[in-house]
Amino acid sequence: MSGPAVPYDYDDNPQRFLAWQPAEDVHERIAERVARERLVPVLDLGCGDGRLARAMRDTSGWIGVDISTTLLALAPRPVVHADGLHLPIRRNSIAAVAALWMLYHFAEPTLVIAEAHRVLRPGGFFVACTSARDDAPELLPPANPTSFDAEDAPAIVASVFGKVEVEHWDDQLVELRDGAELYRYLIQHLADPNLADGVEVPLRLTKRGCLIWARK
Q1: Are residues 133 and 211 in contact, defined by beta-carbon separation less than 8 angstroms?
Q2: In a domain? residue 182
């Protein structure tokens, strides 16, 4: 069962979001598929500081969208300051829409997904990702449900698009090398930094979540 939206603090506390970033993330995999299938233009919802754009070989077709003016200032151009619920984009005009690590900020993520469906061309791709509630069990207790967790996310996307393609991950994909990185990881994940006390490093974390593709 889905839960409440996760509050966002990207303008009030941007250093929290920027405290830690993984060496590899889903952005690189998505950029590879975008290039392979020539999906242009790409609308990057909740683009943050533009990691997907930096992963793309050719950024000329990338358009970033975010509600945070602070993070948009760090992203490549072009960008649009807008809410995912109300996109200033024409219907049937976009080849791919990415909603990466952001749909849990909305109480009703289906409304954002429906807006993505509206702007996509027929045959265009939507892609979203999120973590499971038991992500990083070596460090964190199971999380309370949010509005868009891996346990429910495929069904939520399917409620708008119908058929979905789901890629799950469940492996030790992240290594925290020292205490400082462990502390930054906890800060970035909205966790209690006191959880770092007494933890031996380096620490390998099992990351659990999913990537969801859907075609209009």
Answers
A1: no
A2: no
Q: Taking the chain, what is the end-to-end CA distance rounded to the nearest angstrom? A: 26
What are the pLDDT digits (tens) for 87-98? 999 999 999 999
3-class DSSP state of 153 = helix
The pLDDT tens digits of the residues spanning 123-133 come to: 999 999 999 99
C-alpha to C-alpha distance for 86 and 82, rounded to whole angstroms: 7
Quick one: pLDDT at residue 2? Answer: 81
Which of 125, 32, 106, 35 has the alpha carbon at shortest distance from 67? 106
The CATH number covering residue 56 comes to 3.40.50.150
DSSP helix/strand/coil, 185 = helix
1 assigned to some structural domain: no
Q: Is 60 exposed, middle or buried (0-12, 13-18, 19+ CB in 10 A)?
A: exposed
| Structural domain boundaries, residue 22 | 14-173+208-215
Residue 59 lies in a domain: yes
Distance CA 27, CA 46 (A): 13
